[in-house]
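Structure record:
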Amino acid sequence: MSGLSGYSPSEEHELLRQTVRELADAKIAPSAADVDAGSRFPQEALDALTGASLQAAHIPESYGGEGADALATVIIIEEVARACASSSLIPAVNKLGTVPLLLSASEELKRRYLAPVARGEAMFSYALSEAGAGSDAASMRTRADADGDQWVLNGTKMWITNAGVSQYYTVMAVTDPSQGARGISAFVVEKSDPGLSFGAPEKKLGIKGSPTRTVIFEDTRIPADRMIGAEGTGFKTALATLDHTRITIAAQALGIAQGALDYAVGYVRERKQFGRAIADFQGVQFMLADMAMKLEAARQLTYHAAVLSDRAMNGEKADGLTFASSAAKCLASDTAMQVTTDAVQLLGGYGYVSDYPVERMMRDAKITQIYEGTNQIQRMVMARQLLGGHA
């Protein structure tokens, strides 16, 4: 999917949006409340996305994928999140887990692991964070020690999205403690590898349909050829990955906010107080205008970042990608939190109960300000880009 001009979606992109929205409305939205209430993985969403080749559309055609550009992937995630935030993490986390391979892995490793994901036979998760290494990821303690033609992993990773349902994991581990961040390497670990286990699912405020678990490595042996890139380049790959995948969190935030705005607009048109629809009151109109204005600003910034992401992935000059991806993630997630909170306010007491979807959307929105780098970290990243060596 190509044909970008600036960051305006092409006709092909808009057709994709229509297709994904129809699929999400028909096959994903009806189960969203049940998925949330039961804290269960949305298998019906995975089946629907896989049936339409949308579960990992970003994978290049050379590895059996659809070859969707970054803007197309943003639109897919955005439209799925509009219906169900948990379900949108299927394509988002598949991208997060596989971008390190696309950036740094050998051709043999790419072909071995990207093709099953492209076919919908496997999912990929990303294991970077630890209990003592969240925002400060370089302080991780998970070790990978060489033993002949194998690596032996020991340690734990926390807050791993879709852990337990994904078959493959991109794992960052320390291979040379004396080198600091330059002593971190990246690996592919399979769910079936001996010594790999998972903690209990976390009990979360939102995105309850996407399991979040600790991944535990106890003398987990993997072949040496499962290293992604050269030894010691894992942290560099991790940072480069986030430049591309923070944009998918921005997309998720856009979708959550759009779903809340759409529902609020429909509600205020029907809800009557003092003998008239509350949509007739200027105070309500101004709230809706602010919600839509901020959402559209965040969307334009996210689409711009997606275009820069494509340029970088294609080896072209993409100055400003790090700033744009952090800014998009930060603005979109802050906007999602505000828009969903305002949607709850517009529904009044109805907005506060689970019979209506906006309270779920507000709970789901919160995580977008936290994962893949808190918004405080995003502001640090942006400041460093502005100040260079002075930050």
